[in-house]
Hints:
This is DNA replication initiation control protein YabA. By secondary structure, the protein is mainly alpha-helical.
Amino acid sequence: xxxRNFLETIVAFEEQLKSTQEQFRALKExxxxxxxxxxxxxxxxxxxxxxxxxxxxxxxxxxxxQKPPARKDVGEGYDNLARLYQEGFHVCHPQFGSPRxxxxxxxxLAFLNKDN
Length: 116
């Protein structure tokens, strides 16, 4: 009786080994596919970075070639308005001279930053 139970245990173990071997084979195939995909993505990423670097270099060359616009001498009046703004007063047309809250006023900033 014990021999038969032992034989059944060995057969069951053999079936487990076959099942495990099939799972291992499937896992190896999956890993191989993932490695190929990883390589492809790395190459694509490298290619995109090279293109992005080339675009950045081209943009930098274009910026260097463009001359900055000549700034006109704005004079003392502009300096006074900028100082008033820094001291906390509006210099924009809608609220000229009124005290500013803590936040910046987009109208004042647009006025101070425009090229005249």
